Amino acid sequence: MSKVDNENLYRVRSIKNIIAMVLSCGATAFGLLWLVWILLTTVVNGFQALNTRLFTEMTPPPGSEGGLANAFYGSFLMSGIGLLIGTPIGLMAGIWLAEFARHTKLGNAVRFINDILLSAPSIVLGLFVYTAVILPLSAVTNHQVGFSALAGALALALLVIPVVVRTTDEMLQLQPSTMREAALALGVPQWKLTLQIVLRAAKAGVVTGVLLALARITGETAPLLFTAFGNQFWSSDILKPIASVPVVIFQYAMSPFDDWHSLAWAGALILTMFVLVLSLSSRLILLRNRSS
Length: 292
Known about the structure:
- By secondary structure, this protein is an all-alpha fold.
- 77% of the residues lie in helices and 0% in strands.
């Protein structure tokens, strides 16, 4: 190939590289534009509605001043219970997949099903809890127990489990096999190897998975519409309907009242900042673990 042909080939490749770079940067900027727009709109409208009543008073009727104290409590309660239910199940399933069923057909089938649950619409899981838990429980108790905080927590737990399973499985598989071989050569039992050595080495990734699961369930609305339903008043009974921030935001944003719109914006801002803090915390944990 002559020098002229080499120069022409280099020029064509340079042009293609510039075109690809421009298109990729343009696509990135296009996506970030909408994200920044949404965040700025949420911050501007939500910041104007922030006040002390937001955290001290309950959701008001139309035309009255109030806050989201009962909704914050309901979201905290259901997210906490959902995390307490889903995290141990997800951890045990992830440990089993990584340490005992890594290359088995059953393990591959469980991973496939877990990936389906991971991408399943949350409203489907809410409908499942409504059909499998709320309706039978309502029939048994003669409609005394139906929509409840516990049902909402169960729906959120079903969202937590696949996230924790996936992260636990991947984090444990990333640990070197020499660690396991050395421990087994020293006579360490398999259960102690898994819990005290492998899991401890992967704790940063596992904790990150739990935080990401919490960040996901914090803003879920659809499953709570069919399980916890909502409550305008303060309720600490887990067998009764309870308010939650995502449901209140949905209901107030659809209303024609300006005061409710303000509360919806304020709730959206608090929720967004909480998820942002959780995401940043998970990143910091991973970075600290890598640096150490």
